[in-house]
Write a structure and sequence with these properties.
Layout: H1 2-37, H2 40-72, H3 76-89, H4 95-107
């Protein structure tokens, strides 16, 4: 189970990093659309929208990275955080569902519990 936890740690880090990349892409695409138009009102509206959407995606991606790093270090708080994130990701079909199921299976396994008890 040691290997499963390490794989999970890297998967959560990758998912979080992809979320950060998505936040950046959304910000650039939305704000860039306003800049291309050249109209002041459009620039302001798209800048606000880009900041809100990009910022939201950025904020929800950070816990994934934190959970992944914690899992790699076998921290007990990371196990709890990853389980919470797994349940929330069950609704993000198909990748989130697969990651959620794998996380629940690996972290709720009886053989995994001793890894986080130190």
């Amino acid at each position: 189970m040691d290997t499963h936890v390490k794989v999970l740690g890297w998967l959560w880090i990758i998912v979080g990093a992809l979320g950060l990349l998505g936040a950046l892409c959304a910000f650039v695409a939305i704000a860039g659309g306003g800049l291309i138009s050249g109209e002041q009102e459009a620039i302001v509206a798209t800048s606000i929208t880009a900041t809100a959407i990009g910022g939201f995606v950025f904020l929800i991606s950070i816990p994934d990275i934190i959970a992944g790093i914690g899992l790699l270090k076998f921290k007990s708080w990371a196990r709890i955080l990853a389980l919470i994130l797994a349940v929330l990701n069950l609704f993000a079909f198909p990748i989130g569902t697969a990651l959620g199921i794998y996380t629940l299976w690996a972290l709720l396994n009886k053989e995994t519990t001793p890894l986080f008890e130190s």
